[in-house]
TrEMBL record:
Binds 1 [4Fe-4S] cluster. Adenine glycosylase active on G-A mispairs. SUPFAM superfamilies: DNA-glycosylase, Nudix. NCBIfam families: mutY. It comes from Bacillus carboniphilus. Coiled coil: none annotated. PROSITE patterns: ENDONUCLEASE_III_1. This is Adenine DNA glycosylase.
Length: 368
DNA sequence: TAAACGTGGCT
DNA sequence: TAGCCAAGTTT
C-alpha cells in the first residue's frame, strides 16, 4: 500500500462508511432477476453476462438463459451451438464458450458445485480477478474484493486516487484497498453496494453527489474534482475494414451459410459468405467477391447489383460491408458451406452484422 | 503491457 | 455526429 493512500485510510472511518453504504443499498437497490436467486450458478452466469455490458441489455438474456439452462448440469450437457444461440446479440462470444467449458469442468471435477475458493475459481475459463471476487462474495459471502469499473470510479473519488485505472497495477491497488475497508460481516452487500452506488449515484459523467450516502467522507466531493476522476487513458480509433458479402439462396428456398473459425473474432458463429476486400482493388468489389466464393466454396453464381451497404462498428474495428445476393444454380462440388431452410436458419447463431445483411436482403426481396 | 474481443445507448 | 462507455478476460 502506498504511503499517501495509507494516510487517507488512517483518517477514514471504516465502520461508518460500511454502515452508511450498506443501509443505503438495502433501501435503494434495484430488483434484478439475479438478485432473486442465491444459486451460485445463477450468480456466475449473471457476472459473466454483465462484463462490459449494461444491466438493461442483460436482463432478458439472463432470464432466457436460466430458463433454458436452469442448472450446471443442463448447461454442461448442452451443445455449444445452443449456448451461442442463447448468447446471440449479446457480444463477446468467447464469454459464452468459456462459460460453457468452465461449467463442464465444474460438473466433471467438482460434482456440479461451483467452487468456493480462490484457487479453484481462478482456474476456470472466463473467471478473472473481478468475477472470482464477485462469486466468492455474492454467492458465498466471503470477504474478497470484486473490483470492476464502478468500484474503481467510486473509490478513486472517495480517496482521491489519480492513478490510471486502465493499468493492472492500479486495479491491484484498489483490491488492496477494498480488502481493508470491506465489511467482514456483510461482504456480499458491501461489494454490491459499491457497484450499485457507481451505477446509480456515482456515475461517470454527472455524479449525483447530493444523493450520495457517503459524500461526507468523499475527498473528490470536498475538493470538487468528482468530474475529473477516475483517470483513464483513451482508446485508439477503430480500424476501417472493407468487406463484401453475398446472401446465397436457391429455388428450393435454401440459404448457404458458413461457420467462422474457432478462434478470433466471432468465433464459431455463422455468417453469409463474405470476403475482406483489398485496399486498391484491381477488380471491382463485386468481382472480388464473385471470384472468392467460386474459389473458396466451389459454387457458381452471378451476383445481383449492389443491394446496399452496412456499417458495423466493433470495439476495435469497423466493417463497411457491400451487400449482394445470388441464386445458386449448381452446388454439387460445394465445400465449406451448408445449405439450410429458412426454418433451420433460426437455430444458428449469427452476429448482429450478418443479421443486418439478412434484413437488407429481406427488405429488397419484399419490394420486388 | 497493450491489443483483441461486440453491442447498443447516451451525450 | 462521433466518441465514449458498461458488473472484464485472454493472449
Amino acid at each position: 500500500m502506498n504511503k499517501d493512500l495509507q494516510k487517507k485510510i488512517d483518517q477514514f472511518t471504516i465502520e461508518g462508511f460500511q454502515k452508511q453504504l450498506i443501509n443505503w443499498y438495502r433501501d435503494e437497490k434495484r430488483e434484478l432477476p439475479w438478485r432473486e436467486s442465491l444459486d451460485p450458478y445463477h450468480i456466475w452466469v449473471s457476472e459473466i453476462m454483465l462484463q462490459q455490458t449494461r444491466v438493461d441489455t442483460v436482463i432478458p438474456y439472463f432470464e432466457n438463459f436460466i430458463t433454458k439452462f436452469p442448472t450446471i448440469q443442463a448447461l454442461a450437457e448442452a451443445e455449444e451451438q445452443e449456448v451461442l444461440k442463447a448468447w446471440e446479440g449479446l457480444g463477446y462470444y468467447s464469454r459464452a464458450r468459456n462459460l460453457h467449458s468452465a461449467v463442464q469442468e465444474v460438473q466433471e471435477h467438482y460434482g456440479g458445485v461451483v467452487p468456493n475458493n480462490v484457487k479453484e475459481l481462478e482456474r476456470l475459463k472466463g473467471v478473472g480477478p473481478y468475477t472470482k471476487g464477485a462469486i466468492l462474495s455474492i454467492a458465498y459471502n466471503i470477504p474478497e474484493p470484486a473490483v470492476d469499473g464502478n468500484v474503481m470510479r467510486v473509490l478513486s473519488r472517495i480517496f482521491s486516487i489519480w492513478d490510471d485505472i486502465a493499468k493492472v497495477k492500479t486495479r491491484k491497488q484498489f483490491e488492496e484497498l477494498v480488502s481493508v475497508i470491506i465489511s467482514k460481516e456483510y461482504p456480499s452487500e458491501f461489494n454490491q453496494a459499491l457497484m450499485e452506488l457507481g451505477a446509480m449515484v456515482c456515475t461517470p459523467t454527472s455524479p449525483a453527489c447530493l444523493l450520495c450516502p457517503v459524500r461526507e467522507q468523499c475527498h473528490a466531493f470536498y475538493e470538487n474534482v468528482q468530474h475529473e476522476l477516475p483517470v483513464k487513458t483513451k482508446k485508439k480509433a477503430t480500424k476501417q475494414v472493407q468487406m463484401a458479402a453475398a446472401l446465397l439462396y436457391d429455388r428450393q428456398g435454401y440459404y448457404y451459410i458458413h461457420q467462422r473459425p474457432s478462434k478470433g473474432l466471432l468465433a464459431n458463429l455463422w455468417e453469409f459468405p463474405n470476403v475482406q476486400l483489398k485496399e486498391e482493388p484491381s477488380f471491382t468489389y463485386k468481382k472480388q467477391l464473385e471470384n472468392f466464393i467460386c474459389d473458396e466454396y466451389s459454387v457458381e453464381i452471378t451476383l445481383t447489383p449492389l443491394l446496399g451497404t452496412i456499417q458495423h462498428v466493433f470495439s476495435h474495428l469497423t466493417w463497411n460491408i457491400s451487400v449482394y445476393s445470388a441464386e445458386v444454380i449448381g452446388s454439387s462440388n460445394m465445400k465449406g458451406l451448408i445449405k439450410v431452410s429458412e426454418e433451420q436458419l433460426k437455430a444458428y447463431a449469427f452476429p448482429v452484422s450478418h443479421q443486418k445483411i439478412k434484413k437488407m436482403y429481406a427488405e429488397n426481396t419484399r419490394s420486388e
